[in-house]
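Throughout our pipeline, every protein is held as a single compact record rather than as scattered files. Such a record has a labelled line for the sequence and another for the backbone structure tokens. The remainder of this section carries one protein's record, kept here as part of the documentation:
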Amino acid sequence: MGTQGADTQGTGALGRVLVVDDDAPTRGLICGALRRQGFAVEAAADGAQALECFARIQPDLVLLDVCMPGMDGLEVCRRIRALEVEIATPVIMVTGADEVETIEAALEAGATDFMVKPINWSLLSQRVRYALHAGALNLQVRRNRQHERVARGIARLTFWQWSLEDDALSWSDDAAVLLGVDAGALERVSSVLALVHPADRPRLERMMQVARVGKGSFEIEFRLCGDNGERLLRVVGEHSEHDAERVLGVLQDVTEMRRTEDLVDYLSLHDELTGLANRRLFLRQIEQALRRAVVTGSVLLVGWIDVVEFHRHNDALGEPAGDLLLGSLAQRLEQSGGSSELAARLGGDEFGVLLCGADLPRLQARFARLLHALGRPYPIDGRELVLTLSGGFCCHPGHGDDAKQLLALAEQAQRLARLRGTLSEEAPSAPRLRQGLAEALELEQALHGALEREEFHLHYQPQLDLESGQIVAVEALLRWRHPRWGDLSPARFVPLLESLGLIRPVGAWVLEQACRQCVAWEGTGLGVAVNLSARQFLDPGLFTLIERVLGDTGVDPGRIELEITERLAMQEPEAAVELLGRCRALGLKVAIDDFGIGYSSLEYLQHFPLDVLKIDRAFVATVTRGRRARAIVRAVTVMGQSLGLTVIAEGIETQRQCDFVEALGVDQVQGYLIGRPMAPPSLEALLRAFVPPGGAL
């Protein structure tokens, strides 16, 4: 009975050996001897079986008979080497005593070693152990050399030797390719010096003269002119410990490294998106201008500009378009100021300017013109986008001579402008500044008690169904009537509610009031949409709140619609899908507000449980003028309706806009053309006397 096939008795701790011999007794003796020594053994009776077994088990060593019928051992060895990714497996060829002449052929075929029959059984295991050990060492050496080549390639390193006797140079094999020169140009010192940049050549020659007589190490950087252009090289060398007439060293191409360092230095002082100075550089520039102003007596104006609600553009258009918009603003900021202006990006949507001149009124007028210039429409992807800006400024010498203080005052002035609803404000004097900050603090304090004092109320903006010509739903919108300040714009207090953490109790009140009003309007069949803020939506207790409000008010869940923005849902998309799914299970409707057409929007359509899709006013504003805007509205409408969603266009202010979106297939519209946000009695009166836009049903 032969030993053909698997024969893996033995621990295998010393390695797995494939034994290939067509003679069954010899094959059996070899397998038995190796098993007793602790090897795991596989056996094959011919070349075909040997190749199949090799590919299957990947042995640590092959013991291969040369003379076999059909495919002989030499061919098997060649095919084994062809199967390997790298030549790593030791192959010991076994040949007869009168076949010594085949040894050279075996080695050429890829054999590692050979043994002569008859086999010396006492030495067999030792030869195998030695071959395994030598094979492992050779593999490690090859891998180390490969790692060295890869590391040199990544670091752009090459090694060199310099013979002081005849000025001959020898290099690593990759030196010519690395340096982009002909290999012959690297053979002697004189030919290398001829390639060195003329301005660096004398310095390199002096260093080499010192190296000839000195015994220490040296280091130098110089430029080399080769086929790859001008390269910056760093050379380190020292005298050989064993040969006083030989200098050894390494050369590194540091061109890209220096460029990267320069780029890092640039980015540490500049904004990557716009190329403008960042806050750190801007403060330096203000300090330098202050020193010059002391000498020249000139006046400085430090301005702070904020883009109001810029995130809406990102939400509606996507971040790439938002980045393009910021870049366009930065370019206009640089172009509008002239040579005596410096500009900076101080934050995500915040910018700074530094104006220098002879008198303050002219600088103030320049700053005002700059704000108006920045407020003009921006052509972005076939649309004309308008930014709402808020600015503040201070001056030197009027407000001081410290760069950080001036910038802080300009920022505070901008906040006052935002609070007061003006385009720009000058930083007030210290008493006025305290007064302005006190007013802002008073607004915050008033918000804390506004809910308890019942100063909040809801207005409702109607939504028109274009097919029926009827008002079918409303959107609930929060309003604040202060006893002393009167009606305040939501832009003044809603962000404060968010930042102060008051939006949760106020949001709960809004949801409850909207549901109660929906019950009161039960006979009208109106649906009511309620916006969820970021803090509300991320509140773990939101679902419990919704369940409680639905139970307390008894409202029909099918008439309540929860609106969230695209950006809000994408903060935690998996949690959003789970929460919205639970809300829909209660019978509520779910709407995406301010819908855009980016990647995340498509994800909504595919994965989020939705009922309504509201196209943002950014698209509607140009639908009558831009073919691209019309194409976007149409595409979003088709996608939404194909998934069974109701599509609503927001921001409809003219009959022409209404006609366009109706022609594009939109289901419902909302905007001033249908009705402004209004109190419930006004809405009820509108319902009784409503005539659709254009006067026809």
User: Anything to note?
Assistant: The radius of gyration is 41 Å.
